[in-house]
Amino acid sequence: MKKLKVKWKRAQIQDLNDRLLLYNLYLTQGLALLIGVIWIIFQGRNVLKLFAFPSGLQVLWWGLGLAAIMLLVDLLLSRIMPEDAMDDGGINQLLFQNRPIWHIICISAVVSVCEELLFRGAIQYSFGPYWTSILFAVIHIRYLRHWIPTGWVFLSSYGLGYIYVQTGSLWAPILCHFVIDLISGLALRFRRYEE
């Protein structure tokens, strides 16, 4: 019987095509959702209760307010920092630059719901916002080559955890995450790239 030899190699940005990139995106988000749901069930909590809509506008203000602050800080960082210090390896550009608007909206919604359910709904309940934010930064591995984007991902995650605690609703960080991803995705979609 022949042994199956599997060779692992790190994929480079030039090795990714659109189909493979989307496959990996949706696969990782599906895993985040599945792990989050299982984790919450093992915590003895009701997943559906986490998605109950709040009665007031507090969630809206916290979510949109933090999104506005984070987008302004991100814009400021992109203006004052060298481009290579904020580089994610080109993944976001590849993901969004040729994507139809409806798909950018869909990606933003899927990512915000899946990641916030896992990180704020499940992990933060067990470990608190600090350790959750460290894990969130590590999971966003494409930023780990540079300390500024890594630190920014950590602070962003901590902010998402903070508004979750303040509102008691998962919808605040979901809304904030969605708005940030949507606006960032649309900016990359309509950005003019110099040849």
Automatic annotation (TrEMBL):
Q: What is this protein called?
A: Type II CAAX prenyl endopeptidase Rce1 family protein
Q: Which residues form the CAAX prenyl protease 2/Lysostaphin resistance protein A-like domain?
A: 99-183
Coiled-coil region list: none
Recorded superkingdom: Bacteria
Asked if the Swiss-Prot or TrEMBL record annotates the protein with the keyword Transport, the reply is: no
Q: Which UniProt keywords apply?
A: Membrane, Transmembrane, Transmembrane helix
Name its species.
Paenibacillus farraposensis
Q: Which stretches are transmembrane? A: 21-41, 61-80, 101-119, 148-165
> What Pfam families does this protein's entry cite?
Rce1-like
